[in-house]
Amino acid sequence: MILVLKQGISKEDTDNICLWMSKFGVSANPIFGSGTTIIGLVGDTSSIDVHLFDNDERIEKVMKVQEPFKRANRKFHPDDTIVDAGHGVMIGGSKIIIAAGPCSVESDEQVGLIAGAVKDSGAKIVRGGAFKPRTSPYAFQGLKAEGLMYMRNAGQRNDMPVVSEITNPSQIELFNDYVDIIQVGTRNMQNFELLKELGKSRKPILLKRGFANTIEELLMSAEYIMSSGNQNVILCERGIRTYETATRNTLDISAVPVLKRMSHLPVFVDPSHAAGMAWLVEPLSKAAIAAGADGLIIEVHNDPKNALSDGQQSLTPEEFSGLMNKLKPLAELMGRSI
Ligand code: PEP
Ligand code: MN
Q: pTM for the complete prediction?
């Protein structure tokens, strides 16, 4: 980090700033120019907030030399991270991994049926929400612990890892027992107490980007989990809120190559929540694979019209099978496989 001091700042003020900075455990190195003095801070500056200097009359500007995320940063970990999701499923390698299933678990039979169907089409992970963070308190809130049991049954019967969304740190024990991958939804991306608790779990975490968060904020949330001890993080772009109303969210497709460049963590895309409409899932899935995504998470329902949540964006198992047939050659074209 570099501090550029205001013109004419005295040597005494400069020394005082250096002394202050050294209390953060970094070495502060002043360089005196003809009119301007700069101070180079060397060492771990992660505990120094750039806004600390906003109202400081001695300091003109602050420049970050390195990104504030260390563990998620590709600079310190050049090789791709491969996350072991269990049941032989590796995320982040040459295979593109497809997770599919209903938005909400509705019954043991329903999620079992969908899991079997999507597996037959080539999906490797089954998804399904049991604790649903709905915009309206009157909307279906999920089957909760019972739903997680049904997810585990579906995973065991089909020999597939399962992913489900957690909404509160108090649910962690339940999730450690019942699911293979814990999903953090868009609304909880900055629930820092939850992220810190998930850092103590050894389960892979599918961390979705907040719909109003920057890429750097997503990586800082990954950093919360990783700095608390869990390195098994999968990032997920799922659309952000823009002024556009033609789609539910705007899929930030450029987030995929940007994240792959900035971080070694695997990157998933959720075309279903980005699109909000079933017909858009195919082009967005293709775009995600072309942009370098390591996996997709897609909503599939046996009876979308009567789904308890997100039916409008859910594919039928038949539509999902058709989509997979189109994605497989595309993956090969990208030097990968599904
Ligand atoms: C979901 O996956 O069902 C979900 C609610 O996703 P998001 O948090 O991205 O809206
Ligand atoms: Mn959904």
A: 0.91
